[in-house]
Amino acid sequence: MGAADTYNDIDLAWLMRLRTVVARLGEMDCARWWNSQGQLGRPGAIVLRRGFPRTHYFAQAKSVQMVAAARCAEIFDPPGSVTLWRLTDDLEDRLDSIWESWLDAAGTWQPFFERVAGLKFNDVPSVLKDFDLVTDAEIEAHGKSKKSSDGRSIQIPEKFNGRRSAVALLALSFSASVPGGLVVPYARKADA
């Protein structure tokens, strides 16, 4: 892993996997948090493989992540904050810059995407742990986050510092949601 593959202590491939797993869990055939129906599942792969034979997995992931971002912004989008789908500009730029290298090595990602396709809704921490995307310490730290009084959001306790642990907390906090009832995890930016 080179310097271009990381931001602070965030492995950008880890971030891509984390977002993809949460995106799959929120689809209509799982938790019904956003309006995509099995696009990261096997039906989505079959449809997109025709137009994108080599890179369809990434097309699937990008489209569901965009749907998730839009849905979260509809529910709760406070200024001066980040969500799993909209991190700092610098981090998002670095993620975009590495995208092409992942497309060039799309075959190495196939086992991951096939495993994601088979997911059914389960509790978020268990799934993220099963995919080796969070640690026990991150799961324990997640227990300190509390839902807002209106039930639409959950703020992680500390300001967003651009580190892996903060991103993991954003992902884990989707566990405050219930099937059909999205609660948007967010963190205040350190400079806000």
Helix and strand succession?
Answer: EEHHHEHHHHEEHE
> What is the SS-derived class?
alpha+beta
Share in helix: 40-55%
> Which percent range describes the beta-strand content?
5-15%
Taking the alpha carbons of the first and last residues, their distance comes to: 31 Å
What is the residue-mean pLDDT, rounded to a whole number?
A: 86
Number of discrete helical segments: 8
What is the number of beta strands? 6
Question: How can the largest sheet be summarized?
Answer: 4 strands, mixed
| Overall spatial form | globular
Uncertain regions spanning at least 5 consecutive residues: none
Q: What integer value in Å does the Rg equal?
A: 16 Å
Major sheet: arrangement of strands: 3-6-5-4
Transmembrane segments: 166-187
Organism: Bradyrhizobium guangzhouense
Pfam families: BrxE
Keywords: Membrane, Transmembrane, Transmembrane helix
In brief:
By secondary structure, this protein is α+β, with helices and mostly antiparallel strands. Helix content is 49%, strand content 8%.
